[in-house]
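User: Here's a chain of 116 residues. Predict its fold as tokens.
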Amino acid sequence: MGTLPERRNIPPWVKVPEDLKDPEVFQVHTRLLEAMFGQDVCRIPYIEQVSKAMLELKALESPDFTEVVVYGSCIYKLRTKWMPQSMAEWHRQRQERGMLKLEEAMNALELSPWIK
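Assistant: Prediction complete.
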């Protein structure tokens, strides 16, 4: 995914300092960031505007995960946290279904025991 963008501003709907005190924090597989937030995380401003929260992405020591920090009022934080977590779960289930289909296809290609 490359380097994470640095936060430069606080959206007008986030109340300083009260909304910045107790953020919701969760981790997302780095490979899902583009699917969730767009190429170069270009959808984050739109997600922030719709959800009335502020998102910040932080690189972790493990390149496999990225930390997502959500700032805002309690209800907006929870709703905003739910959206990417739901998207990540949807992608996980989709990948799982794809692996099952691949396994079925590979099993179908195996030769019958009487043909050797």
